[in-house]
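ESCALATION

Customer reports they have been waiting on this structure for their group meeting. Please prioritize. Original submission:
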Amino acid sequence: MESLIFLTYFGVVLLVGLIVTFISRKIKIPNVLLLILVGVLSQYITINGEPVIAFPPLFIEVFAMFALIVIVFDSASQFKLRKFDSMSSSVISVSVWFLLLNFAFLSLTVYFLYVRSISMALLFAALMSGTAPDVTLSVLKDIRSKVLDFLKIESLINTPLVVIFPFIILNFILEVEQLSFISVSQQIAPFLSKIVAGIGAGMLVGLVIFKILKRLYSSEYSPIAVIVSAIITFVLAENLGGDGVLAVTTLGLFFGNMVLRDKSLIQEFSTIFSDFLEILVFILIGHLISIPLTVQFFKTSIMIFGIALVIRFIALQFGLGNTYTIKQKIFAALNNTKGVAVAVIVVVFASYVDIPGMTEISHLALAFMLYSVVLSSIFARFAKFFAAPPPSEPTVSSKPTEEPNLAASVVESLSHEKQKKVKLEVKNTIAVTSVKKKKVIAKKKVKKKSTKAKKKK
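Update from on-call: job pushed to the front of the queue and completed.
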């Protein structure tokens, strides 16, 4: 009976998430904001003082880990080394600068203003180094700009970093009882062995699954085999004493750059699966974490968020140089949205309530997510102003004027179906005329040969 209740909760949460997602698309606002708000509101739905929706801690831990594995694998598999270009190098530069500046300045800000724990401050700084502009850029599909492409590539590159570093710091926190130079130096060897074991497990499973998919490919079962291999990679790395998240990231990078038949279909399956988990994760994070509704918390969190935006802008200045305008850099700095990777990590970290400062960091992380989505949604309305190309770049108006083409204008004025018919007719006429021309040329050649033969006679 209890299992049926949990299944009912699960179905209701998923149904509400789907409805909210459809509504967000209709009104053109990010679904993340509405999903988190639905989770927050579900905390206050009670009967006789007891919450109506409640999940056991074990279910939340297992679900969070499963969601983390699938989402990390999906994001890592999207990164293609073959498509590495000049923009990718600038993106890496910005990501590294952003991570280093967060470690240097955002961690100190959090330490002095919010929680007196340097390890928790570093954990939060690493967590906030990720971006997911697709949360808000989904409403800007009609706009084409270099800075929007930059933001999309940045989210692909820094997602593996934002997933790996917080768990590395968490492992240090769990292993080191008291932070000191001696205790940290003692953990360097185990730390390196965890990295090697994680990468090794990811590459081992990647090679095995590559051989299997090449020889025994199935359009029905290959996508499932890929998801299963990601889970096995995580479990294998953790049992070998390695880093499971790093292992799944390695597997995702390995899979994303291997050549397979119908690989796009397999990746599409994992993307759909991650979208399904994304809805549940954002509702869960709003349901599990209760932000303190006090003036002091909002004052402190907004102040830290403002400092984080300044750090983000400085990282863009250092990483991009003069290749982008100030308006484009401001737009990129304000689009500092935190996506599903950060959300699922916060859900996982919420179970470590016995670690001092972890609850406060979870509160601040959820507040940052809400602030970033709201701010990005507002400035997304002004994307045409901020994301406009610099004057030095050629625009459509700078091209030489051409004489109007009557046939093109007639085709454009027709409906989409009629355009297809007209284009098909044009192709057919071109093919017929080309055949006629070939026949005429052939006849001319035959006549020339016959005249030459007569002259010789």
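Sent to customer with the following note: The chain has two domains: 57-395, 414-447.
Escalation resolved.
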